[in-house]
Amino acid sequence: MFSLWSELHIHLDTRLQEGQLIRFMTQYLGRAQGQPLSLTISVHSPKRFQLRLPALRDAQQFMNWMFYRWPLISTIRHLSIVSDYAWSDLLDIQHPTKVAELESLVLKSSSPPNGPAPHGSLGGMWLGKGLNRAPRLRRIKLDESVLGDNPASLSIPWSQLTHIFLQEALPAPNWILLLQKCTALETGYFFVSDSFLHQLSGCQTQDHATLRDLNINFIETTPTSLQLLRHRRFPNVERLAITFLEDNELAEDLEQPFDLYSHYPSLSDLALFSHRECPLDVPLFLQHNPSLKTLRISIQVRHYKKFFRYLSLRSPSDPDESKGVLPQLSSLIVQISDENAATALTGRYRAHVATMIRSRTQKAGNTISPIRYFRLMMSVPDNVASEFKEILDTFQEVGLMYRVDNYLDGVPPLAPAIDTMDF
What we know:
By secondary structure, the chain is of the alpha/beta class. 25% of the residues lie in helices and 22% in strands. It is elongated, with a radius of gyration of 25 Å. Mean pLDDT is 78; it is low at 49-53 and 113-120.
């Protein structure tokens, strides 16, 4: 019963005077009787909706009251603020706030930013001051233009955070510095640029022991992008998602296997996303990952044949197969990401899928696990999708579960957006 009063979403509006709002918040959340409190505040500028919404000064006054004079601020567990205003303007925090029970913080901009926050931004400085007294804080999700591009330099309790979702683009060395401070981090979602990557040359590889789930979004793709994945060893990462936001150049000129396994020995779930062209040699990147069970990938039609032929086992009894062809793979999700799929996915392309699945659903012995789930995402005529389903139907009797998703208006992005990530 009391939990009904533990969550409150406020839209700041001049129709409710500050005194009324203060009394309303205190009375409403006061009924929770000790339940964990969750507060969401939306602050929109008048220009956005053309309504009688508060001006910046009014919003500042309310925030100042909430952080410094509201008795219940010390009992808030989860705080989320959505704002049109710059954070350094909205929250003029000069002293530590008493947020002793705060466990999670979300700061989201509801309007496009004017540009990236400068190094050592005021937004990041006030956040550091405000979180000095947040001993229970474990999770943060922050939009760009909040921290600046060197968050490790801020007085934020990084060492106690277990979940970090940052939309700010971080130069490679600054991302590495941040990881060094996040000694308890379990889940990380980051945007990283290759800027100043050369500064990492000669740095000794170190372990990050606590991380389990890592999402990296490469802002630009250069021949050295993937080197960043080898500047740290993540012995306990089980899920790794890599997204290429641009397709400028090959991520790395792979002439031999990338050896992802030596840096991610516990990896069981790998996702490779690209908005257009996947800028790497997928087979060479995937080789020698003996523990990988789930693969999610977006590919173009011109790489389709090579990809499925790579995954097709020549002989399940061949001992060499267990070394380089993902012997534990049981779940495969493939997105055909380009517009040529509608005319290019002819009968011989469907045969490549059938050959791969047939080779992985045969009795494999002790070294290779059979594939159990296959999902195909594409944008093709209905008759083409139906032909794929007919082929996959024949493998149900050997235990294959499948799904064919056909999007007539284009395939939606497969990469996880920051707003859809579990928090």
